[in-house]
Design a protein that fits this description.
This protein is mainly alpha-helical. α10 runs antiparallel to α17. The longest helix is centred in the C-terminal third of the chain and has 43 residues. About 50% of the residues are buried.
């Protein structure tokens, strides 16, 4: 006797209703709003404090070559595939992957779990920038040696800002008041930006994206005039082509653009789902965001290494010994350089720098919380299609998300918070992101179909763009180049993890990342990686055992695109030159 095919819900995959969700879905107020939000998501603090350091460390111009090739053949295409898919299905990641290949739709939950983990500590990190920003409004920076009893900027950061102690130290779990208030302030700003809905967020993004660019230009104009700036820029750009023969250079370049552009987090899918189906500029918008993201990274490198070169000149050290990345660059190297600026300009440029970091970080957190909100809204509309997502309900959802994430993030405001943050940041974003990216490539190219994706890309672009889309090469890239590239990065990361310099013996004799206690490494490090990946694997096995089938998609999408393209083509033909009378 024939049995009915199982549905995605039978194995725990919640599938939003296509028609009701799409018809009631809020829309962006303008193309500019969508561009600004997506650009703010892509351009983050890593563009300033990680890319320049990686470029200088791995051969300058040689690293840029590897970086740009990785952008074109690994990260960039996946970013495009996600936005095109989200726009097509008008749903969040769960609904989109369900309609593409239902048995693997649970990969969307790995995405949202990863975003959840990141948000718990990312806002605490932005809180550090808030503290420095507020303390910059003074006639003399408080971390200047004359103001802090001759302390170094690193000591000021660890003692006066974090009041940090090592894990296992008595009193290490005491919450620090200024860190707590800074975290609360960051979440309050995030809540205010998102509570007003898509249009409010889009309007805010104009400021939070454009103003950091202006601040970077201000910092650049000052930095290039400093003594030793030329040496820093030379270290940043001078190509050492021998690095192109090293696997570590390619792994570093590919991971940098992948983590910077950040496909595989579900955010690109969620953001593009709020466009009208007839919108045909998704491909152009992708190219703008991709180019601006990498352009900002490269331009920021000039400012960063001009300042690093200046500090090296002041210390009498080679540039490579001064160069740093991450918090070491922002709260040590930059903080020290800001105290050395002549003419009483230090507070002004300190305000500019930390405001820039804060705004760049907030843009990313806005997009991540919006992504989580999309999951919640799609879930509600699947369970209760009769419920309308009103502005009041939107505020309730945003408040709930921000409140829960804030409460979890309080542990990063303790005296051991910086160590906890280091562990959480090292594992989940790295391995979950690479895993999701690999699965997405396989799902899109082999399960959904490379040819179907190429057609979706064409449907998302104006008719006159179709001839420029390399269909055959795109299929090869999807099937082979992309997934092989991701697998290579993951392999290199794992090799470095277990055979690299990051392993240090802890007090128990076990070799762990950074020498941190084994329990902390397992709970905050490996568990957030193993649990969601295991959930996905079990869900896939159950789905295939139960014969889960992919639901048919509403063909109205293609009709909408065809009508839009036909209308555009007709209007183009009807245009005739006008002569001023």
């Amino acid at each position: 006797m024939a049995t009915a095919a199982a549905t995605p819900q039978d194995v725990g995959v919640e599938m939003p209703t296509q028609m009701s969700t799409a018809s009631e879905r809020p829309k962006w107020g303008s193309r500019g709003q969508f561009l600004m939000v997506l650009m703010g998501y892509a351009i983050g603090i890593g563009n300033v404090w990680r890319f320049p350091y990686m470029c200088g460390k791995y051969g300058g111009g040689a690293f840029m070559i590897a970086y740009l090739l990785s952008l074109c053949f690994i990260a960039g295409p996946l970013f495009i595939f996600e936005t095109v898919s989200g726009h097509k299905y008008q749903l969040g990641p769960v609904g989109t992957f369900t309609h593409m290949y239902a048995p693997w739709a649970s990969i969307a939950y790995v995405c949202v779990f990863m975003v959840f983990i990141i948000l718990t500590y990312y806002q605490a990190l932005l809180g550090w920038a808030v503290i420095y920003f507020v303390k910059s409004f003074t006639s003399k920076l408080p971390w200047h040696p004359d103001e802090c009893g001759g302390c170094t900027t690193k000591n000021y950061f660890n003692t006066d800002v974090l009041n940090s102690v090592s894990l296992g130290t008595e009193g290490g779990w005491d919450v620090q008041a200024q860190l707590f208030l800074a975290l609360l302030a960051v979440w309050a700003v995030t809540w205010m930006a998102l509570a007003g809905g898509k249009n409010t967020l889009g309007k805010i993004a104009y400021f939070t994206v454009c103003f950091p660019v202006f601040l970077m230009i201000v910092i650049f104009c000052k930095a290039v005039t400093l003594e030793g700036a030329g040496d820093g820029v030379s270290y940043y750009l001078t190509p050492e082509m021998s690095h192109l023969t090293k696997a570590t250079t390619w792994s570093a370049a590919a991971s940098q653009i992948l983590f910077s552009l950040s496909p595989a987090m579900g955010t690109a899918i969620a953001m593009s789902s709020y466009h009208e189906r007839s919108y045909d500029k998704i491909l152009q918008d992708n190219l703008v965001v991709i180019c601006c993201n990498s352009g900002f990274s490269m331009f920021g490198g000039f400012a960063v290494f001009s300042i690093v070169g200046y500090l090296a000149e002041q210390r009498g050290l080679p540039v490579e010994e001064v160069a740093s990345s991450g918090t070491g660059l922002a709260f040590d190297v930059f903080a020290e350089v800001l105290t050395l600026f002549p003419g009483g300009s230090s507070p002004f440029f300190s305000v500019c720098f930390f405001a820039m970091l804060l705004l760049l970080g907030l843009d990313s957190s806005f997009a991540w919380v919006e992504t989580m909100q999309t999951y919640v809204v799609d879930f509600i509309q699947h369970k209760r299609p009769d419920i309308e997502i009103t502005p009041k309900m939107n505020i309730i959802i945003v408040t709930g998300l921000c409140g829960v994430l804030f409460l979890i993030g309080i542990m990063y405001t303790t005296r051991v918070g910086s160590d906890l943050l280091d562990v959480a940041d090292h594992f989940c974003p790295t391995y979950c992101l690479l895993f999701v990216a690999l699965i997405e490539y396989v799902l899109i190219a082999w399960m959904y179909g490379a040819d179907k994706m190429v057609q979706d890309i064409k449907n998302s672009a104006p008719p006159h763009w179709h001839k420029y889309i390399p269909a055959k090469f795109a299929a090869i890239q999807m099937k082979f180049i992309g997934p092989i590239g991701i697998a290579f990065i993951m392999l290199m990361a794992l090799i470095d993890e277990f055979d690299g310099d990051s392993l240090t013996a802890n007090s128990s004799g076990w070799k762990t990342y950074g020498g941190y206690p084994t329990g902390v490494t397992i709970i905050l490090g490996w568990c957030p990686v193993v649990l969601p990946v295991s959930f996905f694997v079990i869900s896939v096995i159950r789905a295939h055992m139960n014969g889960v089938t992919t639901p048919e998609f509403n063909p109205g999408y293609v009709e909408d695109v065809k009508k839009a393209n036909t209308s555009q083509t007709a209007s183009t033909k009807d245009e005739t030159p006008r002569v001023e009378q």
